[in-house]
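step=encode ok
step=design start
structure_in=
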């Protein structure tokens, strides 16, 4: 049985070949991104086969296949509206889901009116811009009046003699 080890080094021959490839910078490792792109596009467009491209560039067919797959995915993502602009979508990631109820809309309207000192039309605009909800000016006015009446009742019931 022949020994598959190199006599002087003591490593398996495949390990040395792999190390030699790294040390001498295999052709695939020396290709720039543009060269890799041209290689893959040539195969994708059908101007040459994967085997022919591998022979001409001095790389493996496996490497050509990997580059073609990367290019194919890039083309698909380029035309897919969900992947059109990844950076723009980063801020659109859903952080949590919130059910929009009538009570929430009332609280939001009052918060804008009282906390932000917004006018009735400003509350309407924010409901439309942020939530896409249309309400009438009278609805916002009635909401504020109802909150004022409720606050008046609460204030009248409070014992403020010790203040």
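sequence_out=
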């Amino acid at each position: 049985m022949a020994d598959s080890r190199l006599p002087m080094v003591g490593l398996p021959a495949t390990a040395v070949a792999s190390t030699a490839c790294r040390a001498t910078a295999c052709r695939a490792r020396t290709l720039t991104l543009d060269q890799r792109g041209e290689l893959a596009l040539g195969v994708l467009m059908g101007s040459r086969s994967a085997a022919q491209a591998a022979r001409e560039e001095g790389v493996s067919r496996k490497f050509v296949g990997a580059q073609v797959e990367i290019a194919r995915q890039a083309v698909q993502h380029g035309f897919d509206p969900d992947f059109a602009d990844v950076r723009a979508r980063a801020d659109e990631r859903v952080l949590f889901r919130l059910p929009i109820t009538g009570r929430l809309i009332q609280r939001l309207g009052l918060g804008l009116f009282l906390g932000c000192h917004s006018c009735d039309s400003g509350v309407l605009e924010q409901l439309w811009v942020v939530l896409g909800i249309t309400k009438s000016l009278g609805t916002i006015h009635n909401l504020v009046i109802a909150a004022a009446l409720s606050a008046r009742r609460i204030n009248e019931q409070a014992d403020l003699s010790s203040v």
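step=design ok
step=annotate ok -> The chain is about 65% helix and 0% strand.
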